[in-house]
Amino acid sequence: MSISSFYPPQRTLMGPGPSDVNPRVLAALARPTIGHLDPQFVAMMDEVKQMLQYAFQTESALTLPISAPGSSGMEACFVNLLEAGDKAIVCQNGVFGGRMKENVERCGATAIMVEDEWGKAVDVAKVEAAFAEHPDAKVLAFVHAETSTGAQSDAAALAAIAKKNNALSIMDCVTSLAGTPVKIDEWGIDAAYSGTQKCLSCVPGISPVTFSEAAQETIKNRKTPVQSWFLDMNLIMGYWGKNAKRAYHHTAPVNSLYAFHESLVLLQEEGLEAAWARHVEHHAALRAGLEAMGLSLVVDEADRLPQLNAVSLPEGIDEAAVRGRLLNEYQLEIGAGLGAMAGKIWRIGLMGHACNQKNVLFCLGSLDAVLTDMDAKINSGAAVKAALASYAA
Amino acid sequence: MSISSFYPPQRTLMGPGPSDVNPRVLAALARPTIGHLDPQFVAMMDEVKQMLQYAFQTESALTLPISAPGSSGMEACFVNLLEAGDKAIVCQNGVFGGRMKENVERCGATAIMVEDEWGKAVDVAKVEAAFAEHPDAKVLAFVHAETSTGAQSDAAALAAIAKKNNALSIMDCVTSLAGTPVKIDEWGIDAAYSGTQKCLSCVPGISPVTFSEAAQETIKNRKTPVQSWFLDMNLIMGYWGKNAKRAYHHTAPVNSLYAFHESLVLLQEEGLEAAWARHVEHHAALRAGLEAMGLSLVVDEADRLPQLNAVSLPEGIDEAAVRGRLLNEYQLEIGAGLGAMAGKIWRIGLMGHACNQKNVLFCLGSLDAVLTDMDAKINSGAAVKAALASYAA
Questions:
Q1: Which of A185, A306, B22, B376 is in Cβ range 3.0-4.6 Å of A283 for a Cys bridge?
Q2: Could you give the ipTM of this predicted complex?
Q3: pLDDT for the residue numbered A249
Q4: Which of A51, A203, A227 shows the shortest C-beta gap to B106?
Q5: What CATH number does residue B107 fall under?
Q6: Coil, helix or strand for B333?
């Protein structure tokens, strides 16, 4: 056995995430490791919490990064708020609603599913009907921005229905946070989780979460212990909480948190509103280019996320071959369809640091070139010009 | 709000971990992020698995890094192997045996505790007695190297008792892996977990685990689903497994895995036996220095870990003040006692990259200077010379 150091290629990441990482974030990542109980690290954690409250638009003190990927943040919300025998209404309009169901059931709770077509927003009326039938539901769970389809649901309306029915809302905002408005306090969301590798322009591996006062009360008053020791917020609060003694719980991923801190500094420098506007601007240009090429977006305009674009395929094209050529010849990653959408769409991400004019033009130009070369039925040569016109408008 | 980028100080990390990270590992960490399903990343993962098998001394195909800290690796072992109603014998001779108990109980299983004094090895006779009383125990769990005390237990003997009683063994080797011999296959360990931030000289945040064939059979034949979706090895095998389709499970912490890959390349370059010998050599010098100063090690010589040294305190000294001065004046971190040992000991780590002659002499010299300055009852000026003599011997 003799394995050498690994030197990854320099890709452009325009899939569903991880997306391009800001170079300042990579630089922060490599700074010297210090102890997870070092006073300077503890002070940095306080800054992370404060900036994360800004990102989530919340004043909740229980706002912090879980030391594991987004799936773990999802699990943290469910295992802390649900106990065996509870009932949760779960909206499914893509892959991640299905994963929520898995989480509910593994807590010994019952999932009442509200199903919508993949690529559509969650139907608010169906959720009201579900509560009418199950007024004892403890939780309403939904995905704000479905990463598998690029559809956005009306989080404010859904949270209001939960509140009206004395249920706690759990929101997946993995793909929305910092890309499109997320307003935890204004909307009245009780628990939300996100990821760092999407619109926050950070490396994957950390999951920001936030819990409302009502959620915290529920956690403190549980009848049974949280089934996960690692994700038990009662214990995590002892390390991250407001008046916490910084009690040792687990060893924090020190360097990943340097990186996350830096990505939050970048967000603070740009400003949330400016970041949201940037995603809209480049989405418009990408869309203009794709449409000029003859391709269409899967999601209805009203529900479309700017940062994740599900694109219909040209007739008769081998979609995997296209992605393969983009990756190998152009060092450009775009995403495949997932679950029910596998083989039917591409997913083009414009997330965080990856969301810029250069990437939009590069992506359109490369896709145009590959499709033209593969004799796809597209309007060759029209895309880049249309995108530029969108920027000029 | 205006928060600036965070620039950590350059510490020397000689506590219980995180310990000093090799600069090559930090450099790898900052390489450009690529997709977690990128063919080049998948190829790198295969190398990680192969090198991790070497580190664990196992041929088990289910040997991989969990995308979260060591506590999560612990949880992965328990939630996959235990179901509600099961019985586990848990050895406790420090903090981490207590955490194992928490994990067992959160699985709805019963923990039969075998208690030993903190700082002592697990008493093999007591474990045999526990099996005699509970022949139906499904699991025997123990900590190979107790990070809270620096005591090492006889893993081979304990695994043999488990096997004789048709139980599966779960071993915590967070602090032992790559610092002192760990031989999964030779000892017949069924499940083991470790951390990256100790003797592997890597950043914290990843937990290497390995499961034997018998453990895998147990996981495949569970009557109930694993309570954690994120840690369900049945799902994780689809991404990391031998003939896996690299099915999307969660977004891997890409950059942390670059770092872990590099730390395993470093281990392969040095060789396991050489790494073990290095830890013994520098431990002997540190010990000589401490003893010359008049301090003693807490753990009996036969059970003493070279990489983590629990040190008795000089009479009447404010131990936290000493650590504070070492940190602030010397940029040197050593560890406090944990749990029952809090305020009673220091823990001086010699782990991985931090285990070298310069650090030993620097630590002894700094400790000598601070203690002398605080009028502690020690033999001032003797420590460094004694350590040098140990190297020369």
A1: A306
A2: 0.97
A3: 87
A4: A227
A5: 3.40.640.10
A6: strand
